[in-house]
Amino acid sequence: MLQLKSFTFNPFMENTYVLFDETKEGIIFDPGCYEKEEREILHNFILSEGLTIKYLINTHCHIDHVLGNAFVKRQYNVPLLIHQNEVIVLKSVSAYASNYGFPGYDETEADQFIDQNDQIKFGNTTLKIKFVPGHAPGHLVFYDESSKICIAGDTLFLGSIGRTDLPGGDHQTLLSAIKSEMFTLPNDMIVYPGHGPETTIEFEKENNPFVGKRARF
Fold first, then answer.
1. Is 76 inside any structural domain?
2. Does an H or E element contain 193, and which?
């Protein structure tokens, strides 16, 4: 059975997720751990659960989601998987990290590119992928149908959507992608976003002011 553990790291209050199943194999999504104490929290959990980390995955590569990439790659000797459209987004982080208060940011590069036609397999689990651009040009969303878990990054939030005013963002693209991709997921799918609390596809279909039935835009 797939399990999820969430952590909230860095001043952006970013959600980092660890997914693992009964085999004790797992994946780390979007490690935002920058400070030593944050990295210890993540590592101590993995040790306490006896997990073997197989992959590091970025849903997208904005600074708040990649601050711990180098740490995770070194600590667990795992490859970094991203969408190819995020290469330039990831590479640009080192140019502005100090301006955001992260002078110790350690740059990393992707080891493997993935897209919506791929699947992520670890232990007894297979995650499917959806391509949901708009917040970032290569934003991916990962989901498991049996456990109803969806790692949504910064696409869909409780009562909101990801911002689209950053380089590579596009408001209409995001709205369309949420409706055509995420809203085709089961209504009881639990959405775990990059910031804030979880929600469900059904709730957002009904209530989201941007893409739901009561949308004001």
1. yes
2. strand 190-193
d(CA 43, CA 1): 22
Q: Which of 138, 140, 128, 105 is nearest to 186 (CA)?
A: 128
Half-sphere exposure of 42 (CA within 13 A, CB side): 31
The CATH number of the domain holding residue 107 is: 3.60.15.10
Number of folded domains in the chain?
A: 1
Task: Name 6's bridge partners.
Answer: 17
Q: Is residue 134 one of the residues assigned to a domain?
A: yes
pLDDT in tens, the chain (217 residues): 999 999 999 999 999 999 999 999 999 999 999 999 999 999 999 999 999 999 999 999 999 999 999 999 999 999 999 999 999 999 999 999 999 999 999 999 999 999 999 999 999 999 999 999 999 999 999 999 999 999 999 999 999 999 999 999 999 999 999 999 999 999 999 999 999 999 999 999 999 999 998 776 5
What pTM value is reported for the model? 0.97
Q: Are 187 and 202 within 8 A, CB to CB?
A: yes
The secondary element (H helix, E strand) that includes residue 129 is strand 125-131
Distance of alpha carbon 125 from alpha carbon 145, whole angstroms:
10
